[in-house]
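Please think about what follows:
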Amino acid sequence: MKFKSILQSRYGGLVIFSFIFLALSFLVRTILLLTDIQNVDLNLVRLLQIYCFGLFYDLITISYFIIPFVLYLLVVPDQIFNTNIHRWISYVFFIISIGILVFSGIGEWFFWEEFSVRYNFIAVDYLVYTHEVIANIRESYPMPIIIIGMLLLSAGIFVLVKKYFDKTINSKSRFTSRLATSLVLWLIPLLAFYSIDKSSAEIQDNTYSNELAHNGIYQVFSAFRNNELDYKAFYQSIDDKEAFTNLRKLIKTSNSEFISDDIFDVRRDITYEGEDKNYNVMMITVESLSGSFFTKFGGQYNITPNLDTIAQQSLFFTNFYATGTRTVRGMEALTLSLPPTPGYSIVKRPNNENMFTLGHVLNSKGYESNFIYAGNGYFDNMNYFFGNSGYNIVDKKAFSDNEITFENAWGVCDEDLFAKASQVADSAYKTGKPFHNFIMTTSNHRPYTYPEGKIDIPSHSGRKGAVKYTDYAIAKFLREAKNKPWFKNTIFVIVGDHCASSAGKTSLPVKKYHIPLIVYAPAIVPASENNTVASQIDFAPTIMGLLNMDYTSKFFGKDILFEAPNRALLGTYQKIGLLKGGKLTVQIPTKQVESYQVIDNKQKVDNVDQQELEEAISYYQTASYLFHHKGYNFLD
């Protein structure tokens, strides 16, 4: 059958739609390429890879996209198909489909600007939590102009192809021939579903290039499908007993003893000399607080002047790393001391009740633990996770109208949040209980709005202003806290949940995981710097060490001040890594492994060290095992 006759057949509309899809995908891919061309290491081979792999994923996406339209074209008889009613129905669906493509393309540009990746798990979250996301978009972008532009572009495309589309509506066909065509068109996505995923065609040595080669719409559906990855199915593994034998060696310290000889039991008694120190723990987890913002780490914009000063008066951990690239990953590691298992964070997963958290441990010592959040804690399942793992919930619903001086899509401003945290601390102090407050800020998040007149950068002008406002709010909080009766007995902790950007040329760009950890307690902790390589899973054990408390632990991390871990665990929702001795070992969900030398924040491809790979496997395989076998629940 000649191409012209195909174009004028009943299925010709799908052909026209496919060409539009490919053209728009090519345009989006090219715009994104030009946006970050300096990071792509561009050459002829790389360019061909980006566009050839991109065409592959575009065609697969089209095959999924047209499934319902193929069904419609199969069942509608000629008597209806060749009528004006069908013509107008077809116009509506065709225009809507084009609109979806245009909307997706525009959205991808903004998404790339924010995250330097195509649509992924974050985009799925955006589809789930529509209230916050729509409000955030409205406050961040000139939506009326964007919508008008989208409608004009969609209408313009339809006008260009309308005369060709009309020819597809005046055609006749037999049901048997339609059935054969439809079965072929359905077979393609069926085969793709079982044989192709986002790692089937990858550009291994440059993450930017790899992201450009993907298709955003495909990535959304892939994220829905793969929200949790079975460790053994997707990653190199070893025998479970061997993995736990290795883990027990990795987490053993000189002040710990395993309770049981059962190889799968990681419980151990941690002991410290002397009495418990019932210090309060005021933990400020700062949204997107990259180490690179600090002057000490090369920050050139003076946006953390107060934190720079506070760090000099504190115990400052200078080689501390986030375990992931999302807030829920930071929360997971800081509270659970557990490596980032592939897929969604445990905070968002089902069956995450009664987990072994820092809150539960401190509650068993007589503390009151509170999760204090600036926004609505149903977002990302935070309230459910914290509420079922030892924490009282204090989110935006707990704020009275007169306690809110400023708010945006994500919640109240940091000053209002800290005022509420101080109020919660006052209440706990009156009961005579020590408290542990997990405070989660939101001001350093798009749309980057905050109260005017507080700093020298106008609100809604970008990330730098939001960072500087958070810096101002933290300093104000600490100044006011000095007048509180609980101040001298309180350890203030300032830590990032993740970095502001996680994009890089390599799979896991180490410098994009570097965050500050500051312990400020002038009457308790002497000012000093600690250069040990560690990550967020070491936070909870280190806090317990500062409190000098004996306890039964399941934590994977170590007390940095007692026995240096000298390693960091970090990952995305698919790629998981171990940083140790200047070498990064990365596991990929195709049972492949990459290795890099890390020197001065630059990464160079290196040979895989089998011992370090086995260590990485032991950490991640056992973490996944314990979660799925209820082995990481709190000990009542």
Notes: The two ends are 72 Å apart (CA to CA). DSSP finds 22 helices and 19 strands in the chain. The CA atoms of residues 318 and 531 lie 5 Å apart.
